[in-house]
Amino acid sequence: MVTTINSSNIKDQILELKEQRNAILLVHNYQIGEIQDIADYVGDSLGLAYQAKSTDADTIVFCGVHFMAETAKIINPNKTVILPDKDAGCSLEQSCDGHQLESFLKENEEKNYYVVAYINCSAHVKSLSDCICTSGNAVKIVESAPEDRPILFVPDQNLGSWVMEQTGRKMDLWQGSCYVHVEYTRESILKIREQYPDAELVSHPECTYAVRMLSDEVCSTEKMIGYAKQSDAKNIIIATENGMLHRLRKEVPEKNFIPAPTQNCACSECRYMKMNTLEKLRDCLQSMSPEVILSEDIRIRAERPIQKMLELSS
Ligand code: 13P
Ligand code: SF4
Fold first, then answer.
1. Mutate to test the pocket of ligand 2, among 70, 96, 157, 273 (most ligand atoms within 8 A of CB)
2. How far, in Å, is the centroid of ligand 1 from the Cα of 119?
3. pLDDT tens for residues 82-107?
4. Nearest-CA neighbor of 162 among 142, 186, 185, 192?
5. Model's pTM, two decimal places?
6. Which residue spans of the chain are classified as CATH 3.40.50.10800?
7. CATH class of segment(s) 92-179+299-313
């Protein structure tokens, strides 16, 4: 089908194409502000998964990273799922290879692990898991795991150790990490706190223990919005990817949000999240590619633990 677009403005072109394709535009909180502003929904991984599950659009165009678009496809086999850049990966996803996890589980078969996989992983890893979690529901998911089985938590060791602190449940942790969040250090945080002594610090659970310990709140990106709304503090330091500040400033304009610095940078950006641009978004809607394509065998096995998560956290 040849699609003609009449509009000259790129945002209008995207909206026009979106309508022609009967598409829904799902956008993660770390995307650039211009993409967030034309989204049908902006949110964290959990909110995005629920939106993907409930939409009746024919096409899902996903602005986030690849594993998020892949998750949307796993739960929507009959919809077309496209994304602006198929190379938008994630260091956590890369830190846990499906074949490696498969061998590990085989070598440790006698342990009969209950595998909880953070959603930041491949479809292959999801297919080997008992339940998926996001940063927004990880505590709840681990609390509902069977008491009589040891838990293997993959791939984020930092989120995993935070969940252990919250639940008191011991788990074996895969040694993966987010290259963005581990860049915040005790020193870089103490420095900004010195500059804003009355500010509160909100950090993402992918941050290290040293940073989480200094925080007033540790939570998912969506919960940061709720926290900021109810907090009495005027100044709030945010230790997560820079894109988050756009929504915070838009939805909580009366507060002052300060990006937490890392050792080397005034604020931090995920290079994968920032691969998406308005031009690539328009082009993918025009050509309907890149498209997420999955083997049906992996998809079916990966759907089960996602479905379980959605039921447990609803
Ligand atoms: P959230 O689900 O909290 O938005 O986190 C996603 C992510 O990739 C954090 O780095
Ligand atoms: Fe992955 Fe970290 Fe980027 Fe989130 S911020 S998508 S965890 S690399």
1. 273
2. 9
3. 999 999 999 999 999 999 999 999 99
4. 142
5. 0.96
6. 7-89+273-293, 92-179+299-313, 181-259
7. alpha beta
